[in-house]
Amino acid sequence: MPPAIRAERLVKKYGEVTALDGLDLEVEEGTVMGLLGPNGAGKTTTVRVLTTLLEPDSGHAEVAGVDVLRRPQELRRRIGVSGQYAAVDEHLTGLENLVMVGRLYHLGAAASRARARELLEQFDLTAAADRQVKGYSGGMRRRLDLAGALVARPPVLFLDEPTTGLDPRGRVGMWDVIEDLVRGGTTLLLTTQYLEEADRLADRIVVIDHGRVIALGTADELKSHVGGERIEIVLHDAAQLATAREQAVGLGIGESTADERDRRLTIPVDGGSDDLVELLHRLGRAGVGISEAGLRRPTLDDVFLALTGHVAAEAETVDDEDGAA
Length: 325
Description:
By secondary structure, this protein is an alpha/beta fold.
């Protein structure tokens, strides 16, 4: 079967800034593709192009078998989109918001109301159906926004950072909803700044930077690229991080990284516990106080660091491309 989403050599520029630089992407039907990258890498621009909200300078894209540029009106009837900010009318009730979306899709009054009731129950919003959305919590607004994207039962769904701003409980609840959708056969392209979100939800992950694909694979495949294990040491005093890094020189298979806020030193190694014991001996002789020490397998954070040159937390402090894209 042809992929549900296919993009070939997409290019989009804003003056001197290149948001997409020949981006290629394929998402198989009934799967979840996680789109990761530093803020400003082109994630949101990609979603906007594929959902007809933005026209690329060059390239070709098809979604659900429809040419994005040649048949945008037909494509919009086949996709659902939930952006970074809940696109709901806070002066309407939850029920009225969903009925309005149904009428925009020409479902008819009775069908729109029936579908709205069905989605309110699915997203645990029935009790708040007749309340104005301005009284909803952030998590409720996000669920209502996602419900709106599903009114027309689209085969392909685009979620652009759907859990941004939610507390941990709300994020896990949204993950459960997304997993239910995928089990029902929906194809999903998910952009996210939470690496654990991609690790849990995505069948495959594509990492982009500067508008290009720099890695593609399952979470386990990407983790295998960085290799080995990670020694993590938490010090009593962050002022000793520089000394600890000096003691780690020549020990691992890559450069160590230090986090002053958490007083944490991370070193990629391939010698496992032998390397850990050696490092502890070195730190002891150097008088470095240790609070915690251990070994762990690579995570997607390690992949992100290896591929983009910085950790995800640092990437999140940079302005996203939304302002220009």
